[in-house]
Amino acid sequence: MRPPFAAPLLRDAVLVAGIAGVLAFPFVGLLLTTQGTAPTLSTRFPEFAGAVVLIFFGRLGISAARRGHSLFPIVLGVAMATVGAFSLLFETAGMAADSAAPWHAFVPGTFLATVASAGGVAIVVVAGRNYLLGDSEPVARKPLPMKQLLLWTGVALAGVAIVLPLLPAVDRRLIDVATLVLTYVMLGWGLNIVVGLAGLLDLGYVAFYAVGAYSYALLSVTFGWSFWVCLPLAGALAALFGILLGFPVLRLRGDYLAIVTLGFGEMIRIILLNWYDFTNGPDGISNIGRPSFFGFQFASKPAEGTESFHTLFGIAYDPVHRLIFLYYLILALALLTNAFTLRIRRLPVGRAWEALREDEIACRSLGVNPRNTKLSAFAIGAMFAGFAGSFFATRQGFVSPESFTFIESAILVAIVVLGGMGSQIGVAVAAIILVGLPEYFRELQEYRMLAFGMGMVLIMLWRPGGLLTHREPTIRTRPQPASP
Amino acid sequence: MTPLLKVSGVRTFYGAIEALRGVDIEVAEGEIVTLIGSNGAGKSTLLMTICGNPQARAGEIRFADRDITRFRTWDIVRLGIAQTPEGRRIFPRMTVLENLQMGAVANPDTDFDDGVRRAFELFPVLGQRRNQSGGTLSGGEQQMLAIARALISRPKLLLLDEPSLGLAPRLARQIFAVLREINRSSGTTIFLVEQNAYHALRLCHRGYVLANGMVTLEGTGKELLQNPAVQAAYLGGTGQ
Which chain A residues have a beta carbon less than 8 Å from that of B131? Predict the structure, then answer.
């Protein structure tokens, strides 16, 4: 029997919106600015009202979904997401700039619109779960078909990623942010091999990223080799460094391993900083070769006797072509990393990594050579960091030790841990949350770090094992049970 | 005929502490041999030493006419010695089938499907739980999984460290019955370390008693069961 519908929900939503109103009025409703020397107090009632209305509907949807209703919260969530998304579109398409338009006062700011659409989607997800599981009792539910859900989520995410640059509402900035996020997704997937699968807590992963970036930078500047020649070389060099780090830490585990790898990461950065003759020290390396479309430059005026990308296709030159190409490049590299990981988990070496994470002594007693297994995990994880590093160098055109500080390693470990150790989709989602959102909401300045911290605390409270803890078995019903 | 496993004069140290003080043991092919002794006698140390972790500081261990004293654990396992270490040590987040797959590492020629079929015949409950993660199994099922995992690669010699530890008497009896069945049907040689002296001695062909790092008694299972010293020390003096 479902709880009665309207009255308690409405009362609850009004109460929450009221509390939010009291709290939000001084923070959102009033704005203190200085004009000349005199501080003036102005009001922002539309924003304030928008926030309170949003909280009212959001709360209504959440409590309805929580109580096992499905239809009403789905409708509400879809409505919220639609309104939010349309407001965002207006905002980004610059229509809101036309402040003379009468409807302008009703278009909420980017932040509110984003919260509205994200909240709407969240409500739809929770309510959709109710719908899938039937409008039954909220307790004693049957488990979700995780395999299908994850598969379709993955396909949907990949689909969005592939068509993203082609969408009309997508601008340069979003492509830039998406490229950055994908770099972290790729690094997260690479680190996932080491931390998530093999269980080796590596706090110095950024070192391999740096090795890859500097390999490409030096090879490109010194010899003028192209990106496609340098990419495998940078990967191989990073893998070599992975083995070099792996050897001394073979016997270490847990905290001790973390400390040594942290030191290794810092060592590489300090060497890059001080070996002036080789790395140009703190000045970094500039004029690194930009990527070419398989030999065709992205240049408005191609060099003598060469063709550039836009003349090849007979289209007008547009600097965004290069950005889109970079985006697809990192997307392809990231998907390669993902495909590799999914495949190797089913092979003996990948299985040995996971077993090693679970119990090293049992592995030895079953004939697994822990030395080779650990070294292969370090080497392969480092190789993908090397690929990502080359990409970073060619995208920026400039590398310096400043880009490879400890905070990068920390963010990467946070991505893997928050995503759920070993979960590929979890890592991608965590990268979007930890890197994409703070980057996209840069105008919120310090508040985004506040939100970042709050998000971390909430995830640790609600999902201490990471966002997605489901682990897909690598082998199913084979072989058939023995028939009597 | 030379024994399958021959341990002679083995001395093992943990730092300065001498855990094994010159142990001699032989296991012939097709036998079930059991090793009993009180806590701290060195039973587990002997099993671990056979597997090369820790390595013996003196003495010699020969397996199938090969000196394996200085071999690495994983190389020893690949020669055909399977071990179920103390405390089961299954992989908790991996499924039953994945755990069994790990058992095939030691022998690249393993027929995995056939091995799994045999395992599920011996332990039907594992077949029902094949896609469940190891950590969700009960203690007895985990022990069955550990034994099944060790048997996947068709080892010549199976080393077992206290398979009845922490199991209800009925489950312990079931495990011992399966061990006898494994030995009888496929001729697998079994070397068993046990605290549960009564069951172990009834199961085995021959037994050794280990005390303070030295073998103090040896004989057939029946002889040891009737030995007054064994009865007093390990069987509660009841006399069977």
Answer: 473, 476-477
